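Shipment paperwork, digital attachment
Item: protein structure file
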Amino acid sequence: MTTLLAHIRIKPGTEAKWEAIMADMVHQTMTTETGVRRYEYWKGEAANLYYCLLSFDDKATFYRHQMSPHHEGHDFAAVLEDIRLEYVDPVKGAGGGLPPTVDTPLPADADADLRTAQERFPLTIPAWWGTRA
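Attachment content:
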């Protein structure tokens, strides 16, 4: 399982364009991809701040999402000011039924898209996650 929280700041005045892109992204993701557990966008309290909760069956499924035609096809540079992806791990018994985030190795025959995505979005597991059950 791979779960992330994206912290997203958009450029002022691009709210309508951003939300239209996100609606299309959710529609395309949920109708064309498999292995997607959660894909939700939320507005934050601060102006132009959004969050996305993404959860996939595994790291490779997340990487396929990132490299998908619908993900690569939008002009994110026109609307994004900053984005930070944070891998998160559900608290046992309080994580909405999601399994733990784990970093499984890519298969030996992984294609170029998967290898590129791993370079761009390396999955990191903080050491302190392993200190609690």
